[in-house]
Design a protein that fits this description.
Elements: E1 3-4, E2 17-23, E3 28-35, H1 37-45, H2 50-67, E4 75-82, E5 86-94, E6 98-105, H3 117-122, E7 125-132, E8 140-145, H4 151-161, E9 166-176, E10 180-190, H5 197-216, H6 219-223, H7 229-237, E11 243-244, E12 248-249, E13 251-252, H8 258-266, H9 270-276, E14 277-278, E15 281-285, E16 292-295, H10 302-305
Parallel strand pairs: 6-13
Antiparallel strand pairs: 1-11, 2-3, 2-11, 2-12, 3-10, 4-5, 4-7, 5-6, 7-8, 9-10, 14-15, 15-16
Length: 306
């Protein structure tokens, strides 16, 4: 089902969705991501400093928006490794819409990190996007240096290294005292086409106009619980006509379980298990959801502990 966004905004879920859309007059494709509970759950599970939570929230909205433009059956992930206070940041999404993310902090986070989160939090390093479709398939990965003040800057640098298509993103993550953590992303892309010479200038102007309109969207609008995705799309692109496609649901889902955690513990050496034992228990904490499982070292048989 395809619908036109008119002056009467379409009803529907406003949170935890990807809303694909098209601007036909300019030949542009896009996705609008809106995250609520699916973002608030993992961010509140950890006591992240606010700049780190914002950056991770942007990463989770970003992978959601980019994944909807790919054809894959598996997991699409973002990994950022740096030499700054944040050692590593990971966000991934499955084709079923399960999302998760975490940040590994090694040093004190500077209080003025919000203005330039990439250099102040991650520092120098690399950003990698990976498509993993299972153990019997080849992974597809793109890697780029961390360049720019924001995550959006880094992604634009990545796009510039790719000749496949032109794309742009707008990311936001904010804390609402009532709703909790919320996030949003806009992704616009222009696929390469065999353009006639007299169409080229018109389409180029349409691309510049769409970028300007996307740039006018504020972080608050991207995250606003009272502004539906369709209302926002109409507000931004109604003059050129915008079509929306059925929304894709998103939800936070962690892969951890007591069985998987126990299996991880049984793979440790005797020395490693001894180092992890505190007050007679081995406690394993999930990096994504912060859930803990406690094990009695004596309950692990020698066969399990090898």
């Amino acid at each position: 089902m395809v619908s036109f966004v008119s002056d009467i905004a379409l009803a529907g879920d406003a949170d935890d969705i990807i809303r694909p859309f098209m601007i036909d007059s300019n030949g542009l494709h896009g996705r609008l991501v809106r995250l609520g509970p699916a973002l608030n759950t993992p961010l509140t599970a950890h006591d992240y400093p606010e700049p780190v939570a914002v950056l991770l929230g942007e990463a989770m909205t970003l992978v959601s928006g980019l994944s909807a433009g790919l054809k894959f059956d598996g997991v699409f992930s973002l990994q950022a490794h740096g030499d700054g206070p944040v050692k590593m940041m990971v966000a991934d999404v499955t084709t079923d819409g399960d999302i998760r993310g975490y940040a590994d902090i090694r040093d004190e986070v500077p209080k003025d990190a919000a203005g330039s989160p990439i250099p102040r939090l991650l520092g120098g390093g690399r950003l990698a996007f990976t498509v993993d479709q299972g153990p019997d398939t080849e992974q597809h990965q793109g890697i780029v240096e961390l360049q720019g003040a924001s995550l959006a800057d880094c992604v634009h640098h990545y796009f510039q290294q790719s000749n496949q298509y032109s794309a742009a993103v707008k990311l936001a993550c904010e804390y609402d005292p009532i709703k909790g953590w919320r996030g949003g992303a806009l992704v616009l892309q222009r696929l390469p086409e065999d353009e006639k010479p007299f169409d080229r200038e018109r389409l180029e102007e349409g691309w510049r106009t769409a970028l300007a309109l996307m740039g006018s969207c504020t972080p608050s609008e991207l995250c606003d619980a009272l502004l539906t995705p369709d209302e926002l799309l109409f507000r931004l692109f109604h003059e050129d006509g915008v079509r929306v496609f059925p929304a894709r649901p998103l939800k936070f889902a962690c892969k951890c379980s007591p069985e998987r955690m126990r299996a991880a513990v049984t793979m440790l050496s005797d020395v490693e298990r001894e180092e992890m034992t505190i007050d007679g228990r081995i406690v394993v904490t999930c990096q994504f959801c912060n859930a803990e499982q406690s094990f009695d070292p004596n309950s692990l048989t020698p066969a399990q502990a090898t």
